[in-house]
């Protein structure tokens, strides 16, 4: 049994795939509308792990199982609890340019060039910006955009 210094436990809920956010929203709604008396202090939906949601609660395992039974798309509470140390890295946001290197082929998903494909020419990790050159451009003009405005298509180096 793993408790925080505040007496809370950390549980892992298994959910229907691609419904993690729905489960978190349904838990919030159930608590706000007094549909349950189970106390939940935090819900974490990590993007890296599909099909799971972390719940922090001072309640015992059986009480959290009661909550899960009333939440749509929530399946089960895993038997073993986890600790804050094990889930702490999910609480720190990743930089928008992580995984993008020079030569990566990306698609612009926002801005005036939305839908265009481009090659990454430079990555600025401090500003979380990348400089790209559009594929179909006659004259290669460098364009600097935010790292979260692109979707990686191919990581191969040219």
TrEMBL record:
CDD domains reported in the protein's UniProt record:
KOW_NusG, NGN_Arch
Q: Which GO terms describe its molecular function?
A: translation elongation factor activity
| Superkingdom field | Archaea
Q: Outline the extent of the NusG-like N-terminal domain.
A: 7-94
Q: Where is the KOW domain?
A: 99-126
Query: Pfam families annotated for this entry?
Result: KOW, Spt5-NGN
Biological process, per Gene Ontology: DNA-templated transcription elongation; regulation of DNA-templated transcription
**UniProt keyword list:** Transcription, Transcription regulation
Q: Could you say which protein family the record assigns here? A: Belongs to the archaeal Spt5 family.
Q: What does this protein do?
A: Stimulates transcription elongation.
NCBIfam families linked to this entry: KOW_elon_Spt5
Quaternary structure, per UniProt, is: Heterodimer composed of Spt4 and Spt5. Interacts with RNA polymerase (RNAP).
Q: Under which name does UniProt file this protein?
A: Transcription elongation factor Spt5
Identify the species of origin. Answer: Methanocorpusculum parvum
